[in-house]
Amino acid sequence: MTDAQPVTAPLSLRERNRLRTRRELLDAALRVFADKGFGGATVEAIATEAGASKVTLYAYFPAGRDDLFRELYDEVNREYLELATAARDAAAGFVDRVVALAAPLLEIGGRPLVGRFYANSDPTAEPVLVPVRGHASRLSVTLIAEDVVAARTSGLMAPGVDPEVLAALLVGALRAALAEVAVDGTRAGHLLAGIADLARGLLVPAERGSDR
C-alpha cells in the first residue's frame, strides 16, 4: 500500500492572473535589458514594455528593477543547476562530466535574450546581483574538484595543483565560453569541443583517448 499523494487544488482565476502579470513583468525586464542594457532598464521602461503601471510593478516587486533582475538571474541559475547536475550524474568519466556541466550552460547562453542577460558583465549590475550570483560557479567548482580527485585516485590524472584551483580554472573557461556563445550562438558546438579538449588535456597521455 502506498501513501496517497496530496491533491493540489487548481489555481483560482485571480491567482492565474497574478502569475501571468508577474511573468509579463519579468519577460519585459529581459527585453528592456537586451535593448537598453542595465542602465537603461528603468522601472518606467519595464512597466511600459509590459503594458503595466509603475504601481503594478512595485506591487509585485517592491525593490523595483533590482527585484526583477535578481529573480530573473535566480530563475536561470535554478534551471541551469537542475539540468547540469542531472547531466553530470548520468555521465561517466572526467571529460564527459565536465562537458555535462558545460553543455546546458552553452545552451542557455545561446538563447537570444536569456544568454545576453546571464552572461552580462556590466559592473553597474554587479551590486544588484550579488545575492544570487556565483551559486552555479561555486557548485561547478565543487563538482569538478570532486571529479579531479576521483580521476587522480584512479590514476587517470597526474598529481598537481589543488583540485579546487584546477576546477576554478576550468569553470573560468566555462564562463568565458558562455560570454562567447551569448554573442554568437552558432559557436556553441566549437566551444563545447574546446572545453572537452581542455578537460582531456589534463589526463595522463595513455588515458586521453579512452576517457570520454
UniProtKB/TrEMBL annotation:
Boundaries of every HTH tetR-type domain copy: 19-79
DNA-binding region(s), residue ranges: 42-61
MF GO annotations: DNA-binding transcription factor activity; transcription cis-regulatory region binding
Gene3D superfamilies: Tetracycline Repressor, domain 2 (1.10.357.10)
Alphabetized UniProt keyword annotations: DNA-binding, Transcription, Transcription regulation
PROSITE patterns: HTH_TETR_2
InterPro entries: Homeodomain-like_sf, HTH-type_TetR-like_transc_reg, HTH_TetR
Superkingdom field: Bacteria
Pfam hit, one: TetR_N
Protein name per Swiss-Prot or TrEMBL: TetR family transcriptional regulator
Source organism per UniProt: Modestobacter roseus
UniProt lineage: Bacteria, Bacillati, Actinomycetota, Actinomycetes, Geodermatophilales
